[in-house]
Design a protein that fits this description.
The complex is a heterodimer of chains A (688) and B (166).
Chain A: E1 13-15, E2 21-25, H1 34-47, E3 53-57, H2 74-101, E4 108-111, E5 114-117, E6 127-129, H3 130-133, H4 166-171, E7 186-190, E8 199-204, E9 215-219, E10 222-227, H5 230-239, E11 241-245, H6 255-261, E12 267-272, E13 282-290, E14 302-307, E15 312-316, H7 321-332, E16 339-343, H8 355-369, E17 373-376, H9 379-385, E18 392-401, E19 404-413, H10 422-426, E20 446-452, H11 468-486, H12 490-496, H13 501-513, E21 522-525, E22 528-538, E23 545-554, E24 560-570, H14 577-596, E25 625-630, H15 644-661, H16 672-684
Parallel strand pairs in A: 2-3, 7-17, 15-16, 19-20, 24-25
Antiparallel strand pairs in A: 1-2, 4-5, 5-6, 7-10, 8-11, 9-10, 12-20, 13-18, 14-15, 14-17, 18-19, 21-22, 22-23, 23-24
Helix pairs in contact in A: 1-2, 7-8, 11-15, 14-15
Chain B: E1 11-16, E2 19-24, H1 32-39, E3 58-61, E4 64-67, E5 80-82, H2 91-103, H3 112-125, H4 131-137, H5 148-164
Parallel strand pairs in B: 1-5
Antiparallel strand pairs in B: 1-2, 3-4, 3-5
The chains are: A alpha+beta (688), B alpha+beta (166).
Chain lengths: 688, 166
C-alpha cells in the first residue's frame, strides 16, 4: 500500500461533467463478473444507473492498491471500501447541493445521478446533476463510518443485472490481453528446454536464418525468439537448434512418498481437550490423495511490454498489479513509479497460471531488444510449464464413541500453494494455504491438524480454493466413512455434529433438492449403478457455507459419471443472484472435471500432459446438470463465491460412488483405472 | 500451394466476411487464425490450443464449421471465410446473441466466439436441436469456466426464438 492516498474519495470515484462515473478498483475481473457487481454496488450507494458507470480495474498509479484478486475476497474485502467511498461521495454531493440551493440537507435526496429537492413548491423542478456539482472532484477522505444505504433501499444490489462485458464478448469485439497490440511491437516466443531445469549450452543461430527478421534473445535462463511477424516467429522458435544440458524430474510414481518423507517442520494445531481412546471406541483411518493439477485456462498467458530507458509499461492479466509492479521494478532496476502495470482481462485463470511470469519475461525481452514486445505462450507451454496446483496427501484418524465423533486428526502434506519465485522468496514460503479447511467445521471434542509443507517436484502456485479442494475431499469422505462405521445416515450424522444454524441450513436445503431419504441412496438403472453422495463445508472456516449432493452413475467398466449436482449456497448478502448462480454452476462443472479427469503427468524430463488429450477437461456431454438453492441473507456481509462450491464436489461424488458400489475412492481423479484399483482393495478388505 | 494462381505474387486475395481481402502470401501454410488476427485485425477468432482440440478459433468455411488454427491460408483461397465478426445481423446470429444475454451464458468468454460460430452452423442445419444434439455438436468446444449448461440453454432458446420469428 502507498499509505494514505487510498483514503481519498477521488482515488475511488471520478464523475465527469456529463455525469459519467468512473469507478477505480484494485480488484480485477478474472472473468467472474465482479466488474458488474462493483457497478451495482456503486449504483446503489451513489445513486447512479449502472449503465453510466465505467469500472477501471488494476492500473498501477491510477487504481487503489487492494492487494491481489485472490481467495474469493473481491466482494468480501474488496467491496466495502468502494461502498464507503461511494457513500461518502453521495454525502458530499448532497452537502454541495444544499449549499448551492440554500437549503438543509434533509430536504434533499438523490435520484439517478442528480440531487433533488423533496419538498416545497419548487421540488419537482429543482434538480442538480452530479456533473454540475462535482467541480474538481471530492477533495476529502472516505468517511470512516459513512451512512450506508439500507438493504431495503437497494435498486441494483440483489438483482440480476446483466454483465456489462457480455455483449462485446458475444460479438467477438472484447479486448483480451491476447488482443492487445502496440505500434512497433515484435512478437516473441519462448524456447523451452526438453527437461525442467536444463541449461542452454549452445545455440545455433544459423538454424533460424531462413525466418526473415527473427532474432534470438538469451537473457539468463530465458531463451526466446523475437520477430516482426507472429507465425514465422513461432516457427523459428520451434526450429531453433539448441544444445541443452542437465535438468530432469524425479520419478512420478514416488510423488506422494516424497511428500510424506520430505523434511519439513510440521505445524500442529490442536483444538479441544485430549480424549482418551477407549477399547470400546470405533476407530477409523484413511489416506486421501490429490494430484498436481493445471489451471488449464483456455487462452494461454500473454503479455505486452514496452520497456524504455526511463520506465516501462506492461499490459497483462495479473491478479495483482501492484505486487507485479514491485517484482518488475526490482527486475528492471526502476523505481516503482517508473513502472506502469495495466490489467487487461485474459482467459479465466483460476489462480497463478503463469500470467505474471509471462509479464516478467516480456519485460526482460523488451529491454533486451529495445522495442515493445508481445509475448504469447502456447497452450502446450501453459499446460507444461505454468506453476501447478500442488499435489496433496492426507492421513485421517477418527474415533467414534456411541455414535458420536470424539476425536479427529487430519495430517496433511502439501507444497506451498503460492508461486515462490527464486530462492529469496522461499523464505516467505512453507505453509501457505495448504491447510485451508483441514480443520473440520463439525462439533468434535478433540480436533488436531498437522500440516507439513515440503518442497515440490514441480513448481506450484495457487489453484482455485488452494488446499481446500483436497482437504474437504478428505474430510467429507472421512465423515462419510465414520457415519458408515457408526451405522448412521450420512446426512443425519453430519447434522448431529453441527450446531451452526447456517451450516445445517445448507445441508438440509441441498438434501431437499434431491428429496434425500435415509437409507435410500443407491439404485440401479440398466447396467448402471447409481448413488447419491453428500458433502458440506464452510470455505476457509469463515467464508461461504455450501453443501452438495451428487447423483452419480458407475458403469460396469468403472466409469464414473456425474448426472447432477444439487448445491445449496449461503454467502450472506447476494449482490447479483444470476451472477452468483453462474459462479456456482461454473465451480460445480470445473470441480467435476478436476475430480473425474485431471492429473498432471510427468516423465523424468518434464510434464507430459501438454495438450487437451493428455490433460483432458470436461466437455459438454459429460457436464452434470446443476440445481441450486441460494440462501440470501441481506442482513449478513457478502462472502465470496468464486471458490466455495469447488470444495464440496469431489467428496460428494466419492460418497455417491460409495453409496452405489461400496467402493471408496480415496484418490483423485476418479478414472476407470482408479475405480478398478479401489474395487480390488475393497475386495481384499483393505481400507486405504 | 504450388501452382495456385492466387499465390503467383507476394500477396493473396481471401474472401472474408463477404469482402475480398489482400493478405501476404509469403507463407501459404500459415494458419488461417494468424492471417485473420494479425493481418486483418479480426481478433474475435481466438488463439488457443493450435491443434483443433478446443474450438476457440472456430470459423465458417463456405458455411461449414472449421478450425482456423489447423486450416492453412492456401486451403481457403477459393472459399468464403466467415468469422464471428461476420455473422452480422442474420436471424440466427441475432437470436443467439439475444439468448446469450438472457442466459448470461459466459464467464471469461474466451470460448464464446467459437461457440457462437459453432451454434450458428448447428442452427443452420438443424433449426430445433435437442439438448443432447447441442451437447454433441458442441462437444469439440472447451469451456474452462464451466458454462456448458448455460450455453446449451442459450442454443435451445435461440432455436425457439427462430421458430416464432415471423
Amino acid at each position: 500500500m502507498n499509505g494514505t492516498p487510498e483514503l481519498l474519495v477521488d482515488r475511488w470515484i471520478a464523475i465527469d461533467r456529463d455525469g459519467g462515473v468512473r469507478v477505480l478498483v484494485g480488484k480485477v475481473d478474472l472473468g467472474t463478473g465482479i466488474r458488474t457487481a462493483f457497478a451495482q454496488i456503486v449504483a446503489d450507494e451513489l445513486d447512479v444507473p449502472p449503465e453510466r458507470i465505467t469500472v477501471v480495474e488494476g492500473r498501477t498509479g491510477i487504481t487503489p492498491d487492494q492487494g491481489s484478486t485472490v481467495g474469493s475476497q473481491s466482494l468480501q474485502s474488496g467491496a466495502p471500501p468502494l461502498r464507503a467511498a461511494a457513500a461518502t461521495a453521495r454525502a458530499v454531493l448532497l452537502r454541495r447541493a444544499a449549499q448551492r440551493l440554500g437549503v438543509t440537507v434533509d430536504r434533499l435526496d438523490t435520484r439517478d445521478g442528480a440531487v433533488i429537492l423533496i419538498d416545497g413548491p419548487h421540488a419537482a423542478a429543482t434538480s442538480l446533476s452530479y456533473g454540475e456539482l462535482v467541480g474538481d472532484g471530492f477533495g476529502c477522505e472516505v468517511d470512516a463510518l459513512p451512512a450506508l444505504r439500507a438493504p431495503s433501499a437497494y435498486r441494483w444490489v440483489g438483482h440480476s443485472t446483466p454483465r456489462v462485458d457480455l455483449p462485446a464478448k458475444a460479438h467477438g469485439t472484447f479486448t483480451y490481453v491476447q488482443d492487445v497490440a502496440v505500434p512497433g511491437m515484435l512478437h516473441v516466443r519462448i524456447v523451452r528446454p526438453p527437461a525442467v531445469g536444463a541449461h542452454c549450452a549452445d545455440v545455433d543461430a544459423a538454424s533460424i536464418q531462413r525466418f526473415a527478421g527473427t532474432r534470438i534473445v538469451h537473457e539468463g535462463e530465458l531463451l526466446a525468439v523475437a520477430g516482426p511477424e507472429q507465425w514465422s516467429t513461432a516457427e523459428a522458435a520451434r526450429a531453433l537448434a539448441v544444445q541443452w544440458t542437465g535438468g530432469g524430474l524425479p520419478d512420478e510414481r514416488d510423488t506422494f512418498d516424497r511428500l510424506r518423507d520430505a523434511a519439513g517442520d510440521p505445524v500442529v494445531t490442536r483444538a479441544g481437550a485430549a480424549i482418551e481412546v477407549l477399547a470400546t471406541d470405533a476407530t477409523c483411518e484413511a489416506d486421501y490423495r490429490w494430484p498436481f493439477q493445471s489451471h488449464a485456462s483456455l487462452g494461454p498467458p500473454c503479455a505486452v511490454a514496452d520497456v524504455r530507458k526511463d520506465g516501462a509499461t506492461i499490459w497483462c492479466s495479473s491478479q495483482g498489479v501492484y505486487a507485479l509492479r514491485a517484482r518488475l521494478a526490482a527486475q528492471l532496476g526502476f523505481d516503482d513509479d517508473a513502472v506502469r502495470v495495466v490489467y487487461v482481462e485474459g482467459s479465466g485463470c483460476f489462480g497463478d497460471n503463469g500470467s505474471d511470469d509471462a509479464a516478467a519475461q516480456a519485460a526482460t525481452i523488451s529491454r533486451s531488444v529495445g522495442a515493445p514486445v508481445r509475448l504469447q505462450w502456447s497452450a502446450a507451454e501453459q499446460l507444461g510449464w505454468d506453476p501447478k496446483g500442488p499435489a496433496m496427501c492426507s492421513e485421517l484418524r477418527g474415533v467414534v464413541r456411541e455414535g458420536r465423533i470424539v476425536a479427529w486428526e487430519h495430517d496433511v502434506w502439501t507444497p506451498p500453494h503460492l508461486h515462490l519465485r527464486g530462492a529469496g522468496a522461499r523464505a516467505l514460503g512453507g505453509a501457505v494455504a495448504g491447510d485451508r479447511n483441514a480443520a473440520v467445521d463439525y462439533d468434535v471434542p478433540q480436533r488436531v491438524v498437522v500440516h507439513v509443507a515440503p518442497h515440490a517436484d514441480l513448481e506450484t502456485s495457487a489453484f482455485r480454493s488452494l488446499g481446500a479442494a483436497h482437504n474437504v475431499f478428505a474430510n467429507e469422505s472421512f465423515v462419510d466413512e465414520l457415519a458408515h462405521v457408526a451405522g448412521a445416515d450420512p446426512l443425519a450424522f453430519r447434522l448431529d455434529h453441527l450446531s451452526d444454524a447456517r451450516a445445517r441450513d445448507v445441508l438440509e436445503r441441498a438434501a431437499d433438492l434431491v428429496a434425500w431419504r435415509a437409507g435410500e441412496h443407491a439404485w440401479t438403472y440398466g447396467a448402471l449403478r447409481c448413488g447419491l453422495g453428500i458433502a458440506f463445508a464452510r470455505y476457509n472456516g469463515h467464508g461461504a457455507y455450501v453443501a452438495a449432493v451428487a447423483t452419480c452413475t458407475i458403469a460396469e467398466d468403472g466409469a464414473v459419471g456425474v448426472r447432477e449436482l444439487a448445491i445449496a449456497h449461503d454467502c450472506g448478502l447476494v449482490v447479483n443472484p444470476d451472477g452468483l448462480r453462474n459462479q456456482i454452476e461454473g465451480n460445480a462443472i470445473q470441480a467435476t472435471s478436476r475430480a473425474l479427469l485431471e492429473e498432471v503427468r510427468f516423465d523424468r524430463e518434464r510434464v507430459t500432459s501438454t495438450d487437451w488429450s493428455a490433460y483432458p477437461i470436461l466437455r459438454f456431454p459429460a457436464a452434470p446438470a446443476v440445481r441450486i438453492a441460494v440462501i440470501d441473507r441481506p442482513d449478513q456481509p457478502a462472502l465470496g463465491a468464486g471458490e466455495p462450491t469447488t470444495i464440496v464436489v469431489a467428496p460428494a461424488i466419492a460418497n455417491a460412488v460409495f453409496a452405489a458400489t461400496g467402493v471408496r475412492l480415496r484418490r483423485v481423479p476418479f478414472t476407470k483405472a482408479r475405480f478398478v484399483d479401489a474395487l480390488a482393495l475393497f475386495a481384499e478388505g483393505i481400507r486405504r | 500451394m504450388i501452382g495456385h494462381p492466387a499465390l503467383a505474387s507476394d500477396t493473396a486475395v481471401l474472401v472474408v466476411n463477404g469482402k475480398a481481402c489482400v493478405v501476404s502470401a509469403a507463407d501459404p501454410n500459415k494458419p488461417l487464425v494468424f492471417v485473420l488476427r494479425d493481418e486483418l485485425g479480426l481478433r474475435g477468432t481466438k488463439v488457443s490450443c493450435g491443434h483443433g482440440q478446443c474450438g476457440a478459433c472456430a470459423v465458417l468455411i463456405d458455411g461449414v464449421e472449421a478450425r482456423a488454427c489447423t486450416t492453412a491460408l492456401v486451403d481457403v483461397l477459393d472459399h468464403e471465410v466467415t468469422t464471428v465478426e461476420g455473422l452480422g445481423e442474420s436471424d440466427i446470429a441475432c437470436s443467439l446473441r439475444d439468448a446469450i444475454d438472457v442466459e448470461q451464458a459466459s464467464q471469461c468468454g474466451y470460448c464464446l466466439p467459437g461457440m457462437v460460430v459453432a451454434a450458428t452452423a448447428l442452427l443452420a442445419r438443424n433449426s430445433d436441436p435437442s439438448e443432447e444434439a447441442i451437447a454433441d455438436a458442441l462437444a469439440p468446444h472447451l469451456c474452462r469456466c464451466g458454462t456448458y449448461g448455460r450455453v446449451v440453454r442459450t442454443v435451445r432458446r435461440a432455436a425457439h426464438a427462430g421458430a416464432v420469428r415471423p
